[in-house]
Amino acid sequence: MCGIVGYMGSQEASQVIMNGLKMLEYRGYDSAGICTMDLGDVEIRRSSGKLVNLERLLNEQPLHGTIGIGHTRWATHGKPSVANAHPHKGGAVVVVHNGIIENYLALKEELTSRGHTFLSETDSEVVSHLIDENLKTATSLEEAVRRALKDLQGAYALCILSQMDDKTLIAAKSGSPMVVGIKGDEYFVASDMPAIISNTREMVIMEDGEMAVFRNGGVKFSTLGGEEIIKTPRYIDWSPLMAEKNGYPNFMLKEIHEQPRSIKNVIAGRLHVDEGDVFFEGLELDDSALRAFERLCLVACGTSWHAALAGKYMIEEYCRIPVDVEIASEFRYRDPMVSKKTLVIPISQSGETADTLAALREAKSRGAHIVSICNVVDSSIARESDGVIYTHAGLEIGVASTKAFTTQLVALYMLAIRLGRANGIIDLGKGQEMIAALGRLPALVEKTLELDPQIEEVACEYLTCWDAIYLGRGISYPIALEGALKLKEISYIHADGYPAGEMKHGPIALIDREMPVFILAPNDKHLVKVRSNMEEVITRGGRVVAFCSEGDLETGKRAEFALQIPWGGEALSTVLFAVALQLLAYNFAILKGKDVDQPRNLAKSVTVE
Ligand code: M6R
Q: What's the pLDDT at 605?
């Protein structure tokens, strides 16, 4: 989510790092900073806003030295500000961090009791203090880092300096990307290749659980446990643009493939396995406050509205609380019925959608309590809410929402657990079971992504169609709507989603040999009925593609194609079916030669009503 650059060599480090950070700025970060070491002194410059602000600061107050680390931040914990910008300094230690430290609150408490003073709201600052604390008894910076890393839970890519050792730069990785570039005795470290590809194409890709120690013109790679590893650099022949997309041909595909990681992020630090419960740092409502709400109102636009619809199924089923789902652009114009007893939940990736923001303000003016589900930290919707549940999907650049949607589904599922535990409808055992299902989800998403070749075949077969219908029942209905929207927005094929049972009330008249019917048939309580709906289509000569659950070889027998989607439980299978439908729309659009990242007439963030 954030960008990291480190350097050790013979050039002015601040210049090399600034050039690297500029290559990452297309992602639109909110603050940046650099630290260099010169003759044992560490000096830091940080600024909020665009990189140009940091550049201006460096012109006024230059940094010298040939070792340094830098960072561009995309806020996750703590609003965008100078205080929250990296690098963070704790005692003698300076770090830049990408990822989420799940146990930072517990570590912060412990370190505060040992006399450490924290200056930011970030999870990252805790790493610098923790290493500094270990430095008191360790024989080297390397040893202090190793000891500290043992105590970290969560994901990280870190670059570390210490004023106690002005000849050493350390990089470590677990769960967040990190590459090392080598050019003679110059070393470059980065979270993303574009940051350093203009300096060298000889790169070492670091794996989880590895550490690199740069000292005296050399580098030593080892496991976090201290076992040395030999890593051979490979030549990267990607163009700078390919490197920005991590080798993917466009951002949409990159973001589709990032979903296992973004799902890990939305879950990170929030699951209380023993209590079968979920903790949201930004919810700020205890059990009795949650129980006091008579109903929930989810309000959103587009893909986020589809997530809201799925959320209704989850919350009503698991918590037995009535949920209304509102299209934000309609909500404020019809004298909405919300009051102090309504928990209003705006859902938005960008946090800037004008209609959703207007709906939030309308609900607030009527006394409703607002807890938003947002991806962009400190966005307008997040700021104006009484509480926020961040989805931590990372920056989404492709206009078609993918990882933002699936993390919204996961956030809603976790909210259902929280509400159900608060009102006692979900007991300990059920809560634990639901949490265990969450833990399995990232691997199942990986498995779903492997279906891409089969999905491409389906897109090839129906490439000339003008229309498509997506059918689903129960919680699969919103996923059918989302599948249809994805196809429309990036391939320009007209598509509609329907509850499968509605077909016979009108849309069945459309069935012919031209229009594919994509039927979502997970192995849930609706399966028997969905099979009947499928028969209704086939009997009328319709062309059916069945998205079934893994192991169900029966349902798709009479379909032209049957895909086997991994089973993640009734509610979480929505995520897996959504991933398959993203790939379907993507393949249609690519085969038709469309620009999937910037489809015509669309904008990523719709800030006009
Ligand atoms: O940023 P938001 O989630 O508030 O955006 C809402 C819609 O504009 C957005 O989901 C839109 O429908 C996407 N293009 C869908 O891919």
A: 66
